[in-house]
Write a structure and sequence with these properties.
The protein is an alpha/beta fold. The chain contains 22 helices and 28 strands.
Length: about 800
């Protein structure tokens, strides 16, 4: 079948839906009027050509290496011929670049081939939208592997995250991709969850601001950003992947949902992906309150909702709220999902039969098709001059791991590394002290750069199915980076143990190497994988927060040698280090810092790189007594002996040391009272009191003293990175609108309540030397769409003498 002229009608005039001079909405309505019911339904589906699960011969047959949940179970959908799959049109093409190792040119050629098939075999010749994963960079062979999202959280640097996302978007657009399935806006609730590495931390404001920045970068590059997982996924019971979420509506609205609302309102996100989980028994994929009433009617979202992979049939097979896949499709469409990914199962042509039988309103089909077609118009796919070849014109020249990309990856990695405790060992190279002559580098993360990469990085996500291809990018291990960083030192290496097995046979050699050295650098943590193939990542949840395998025992044994041990944790989640801290000469946390992670960590250890990362999650003291996050009401924190379990962390949220010192003081609060629709400013002076240039992250926290529901003891409300030379001072001023104190009241409406608000400013959730109070006056206000979601901050050089005060009670 050959499609007719897709640009002109029979009398030679340009089709209205292809006329760029017309408004987008007019073009979409003209196209809908021309489409049959079957063609409109065709736009709601997708096709994953790469999901045939034909593993290379060198991969063990019993190891599926799935890249999506139950991918092998649904692989049969990948056998449908493309010409049959697109007979009535197609909404999305799935992961053309992200399913197998292909070069940019090879992937672009496949995009051209598939788009030609879509246009040729459908009556109207409407091209498909191409989506790809992009969580740690463009998930394709040879593309830059940036730090994992948890490392973005450690930077506390929205501008840097936005620049990274823009670079990712430019690479994707160059090869014909239109939509990226990122960012993850889940707020961490339990550190044992495998996908902590994909989040930006445990605080809604930090995640919201960084997430909105990522969205702006990707969208400004012309790629649709997809917010996921909407909503509640990270709060599953016992931190099990896909587990039920025992969460009330109030916690959902105050902790989980603000990140998505901010990324839509402040970032301009054009797509949302549903969560796999059910919240209080209602699966997100079948929840009209979540996907329609809240997302669209209350927040005003106008983009598309795409299903997470196979979330539609999961309504039948996993949640068992639908009798079969067909009924699951009806439930999902009715709730507000517009496009089914990664293949069409529930959104098939059975929907047309139901419409004709009066069982499904055609308006629901039109609603979903209208939203997707709007994006196709916006992306230029329906313009008369669009061609498959033109859409991938940049593929011949694009460098997916360019020097510019690598420089960004290096900057992110360096800013994300958290110096937990320098002890007396770091930095290794300093004035007045000779560097170590012999260094033993020990641990399972020392010699394998895959440990620097998240589970959605292509080397860990797809290349385990292609073990002969290596990593596809240059990524030196920390062992190699230390040899380059310390050229005058003899570097010896012993692995000691593996990531997660119980084999201690390597301990003896590791201990001998440590005893014979001036210093031991022990590098422990995670290797990311999927569905049990790693210690961190999707489907790699933890029973407790001990370092995996026998790694903690290795550290304790190394400390017994008498040689100073610098512990470097390279991980996707925080691990309990209480047993290790007093035995370590220094502690460093590196959250999967990407392909440039080796040099970044080595630079921090030597002192060449000034550490400035801050913890986006707490570091627990014990492996099983918490894993609550810092965002707790009074009875969730230290309860004064009511419980024998002390949830106090080893290192608090926001903590991060430096090789210089900073002082935060001279607090000024503009008003002692403001109305419940007013604004006040909070200002502090930050001074570099040490001998090196450095950056401090100044953090503003608020606490509602008396409220109609329990409120967090403190909650992040603003932050600013401040770079200072030795002896230099700056003043950071936060503009705090009363909306920033809003919460969900007993009637489940968001309110700003009159009363006292405590103000804290410092350098972590526990180090808060500046404290004051403001009273909100006037009536209780109900707030919603349009309320202030961010706290602007201005940093200027400080002028005048310091007053030295740290308290400003109603000043």
């Amino acid at each position: 079948m050959t499609a007719p002229d897709r640009t002109h009608t029979a009398d030679g005039t340009l089709r209205a839906w292809q006329d760029p001079a017309l408004p987008v909405a007019d073009r979409v309505e003209a196209l809908l009027a021309e489409m049959t019911l079957e063609e409109k339904i065709g736009q709601l589906g997708s096709r994953w050509i790469g999901n045939d699960m034909q593993a290379p011969e060198e991969v063990e047959p019993d190891n599926a290496h799935n890249v999506a949940p139950m991918q092998d179970v649904f692989a049969a959908s990948g056998t449908v011929p493309i010409e049959e799959a697109v007979r009535h049109g197609l909404g999305h093409l799935t992961r053309v670049f992200g399913s197998a190792p292909v070069t940019a040119v090879e992937g672009a050629a496949e995009v051209v081939r598939l788009q030609r098939e879509v246009v040729k075999h459908s009556r109207l010749g409407i091209p498909a939208l191409v989506h790809e994963e992009c969580l740690t960079g463009f998930t394709t062979y040879g593309a830059t592997v940036y730090p994992a999202a948890i490392a973005w959280g450690a930077t506390f640097d929205p501008e840097l995250v936005e620049r990274m996302a823009a670079a990712i978007g430019r690479d994707m657009r160059a090869v014909g991709a239109h939509q990226g399935l990122s960012p993850v806006l889940d707020v961490v609730r339990d550190y044992r969850w495998g996908r902590v590495e994909e989040t930006m931390g445990e605080d809604p404001y930090l995640v919201a601001t960084l997430g909105a920045a990522y969205v702006r970068g990707l969208e400004n590059a012309g790629v649709i950003a997809t917010l996921k997982h909407f909503a509640g996924y990270s709060a599953s019971r016992a931190a099990r992947n896909h587990g039920p979420v025992p969460m009330g509506r109030r916690e959902l609205m105050d902790v989980i949902l603000p990140t998505f609302e901010t990324a839509i309102a402040e970032g301009g996100a054009r797509s949302v992906m549903n969560s796999y989980s059910d919240v209080d028994g209602v699966p997100a994929a079948a929840d009209p309150w979540l996907l329609t009433e809240l997302l669209r009617d209350e927040w005003g979202f106008t983009g598309t909702v795409v299903s997470d992979y196979w979330a539609v049939p999961f309504l039948a097979t996993m949640h068992q709220v639908a009798a079969d896949t067909d009924e699951a499709g009806v439930q999902a469409l009715t709730a507000g999902i517009d496009v089914e990914l990664p293949d069409t199962l529930g959104f098939g042509q059975h929907l047309a039969e139901r419409v004709r039988r009066g069982e499904l309103p055609e308006e629901l089909v039109d609603r979903a098709a209208r939203r997707l077609l709007t994006q196709k118009v916006q992306l230029g796919l329906l313009d008369p001059d669009w061609t498959p070849e033109g859409a991938v014109a940049g593929a011949d020249t694009v460098d997916l791991d360019s020097p510019g990309n690598r420089a960004l990856a290096r900057e992110l990695a360096e800013r994300s590394i958290v110096l937990l405790d320098a002890g007396d060992a770091l930095p290794l190279l300093r004035e007045g002290r000779p560097g170590p002559r012999r260094v033993a580098v020990v641990g399972p993360c020392a010699d394998d750069p895959r440990t620097f990469m998240g589970c959605y990085a292509f080397p860990n996500h797809v290349l385990p199915r292609h073990p002969k291809l290596g990593l596809g990018v240059e990524a030196p291990a920390l062992l190699d980076a230390l040899r380059a960083e310390l050229p005058d030192a003899e570097i010896v290496h012993e692995r000691g143990c593996d990531w997660r097995d119980e084999d201690r046979s390597g301990f003896a050699a590791a201990l001998a190497a440590a005893r014979e050295s001036d210093l031991c650098v022990a590098v422990v943590g995670d290797l990311a994988g999927l569905f049990g193939q790693g210690t961190s990542g999707e489907g790699c949840d933890a029973e407790d927060l001990r370092l995996p395998g026998v790694q903690e025992d290795l550290l304790v044994a190394l400390a017994s040698t008498g040689t100073p041990v610098v512990v470097v944790v390279v991980s996707g989640r925080p691990y309990a280090l209480g047993r290790v801290r007093d035995r370590a000469a220094a502690l460093v946390q590196a959250f999967m810092p990407g392909e440039e992670g080796g040099a970044a960590i080595a630079g921090v250890l030597s002192g060449r790189v000034q550490p400035s990362g801050k913890l986006p999650v707490q570091i627990p003291r014990t492996p099983g007594g918490q894993p609550g996050t810092y965002l707790q009401p009074p009875l969730g924190s230290d309860s004064h002996g009511i419980s024998n379990l002390d949830p106090t962390p080893l290192f608090p949220f926001g903590h991060g040391a430096s090789y210089t010192t900073f002082e935060v003081g001279d607090l000024e609060i503009s008003d002692s009272e403001v109305p419940t629709d007013g604004e006040f400013t909070v200002s502090v002076r930050v001074r570099n009191t040490g001998g090196r240039t450095g950056e401090e992250v100044v953090q503003l926290y608020l606490h509602d003293v008396l409220a109609q529901v329990t409120r967090p003891v403190r909650q992040l409300a603003g932050f600013a990175r401040v770079r200072l030379e030795p002896g230099e001072s700056a003043r950071a001023t936060f503009a705090v609108h009363a909306d920033r104190t809003a919460f969900t009241g007993r009637d489940l409406r968001r309110i700003v309540e009159p009363g006292d608000i405590e103000v804290f400013v410092g350098t972590s959730a526990s180090d808060l030397p500046c404290r004051g109070r403001v009273r909100l006056t006037g009536p209780l206000r109900h707030v919603g769409r349009g309320r202030r979601l961010v706290t602007p901050v201005e940093v200027r050089p400080a002028a005048g003498p310091e007053r030295g005060g740290t308290d400003a009670a109603q000043s």
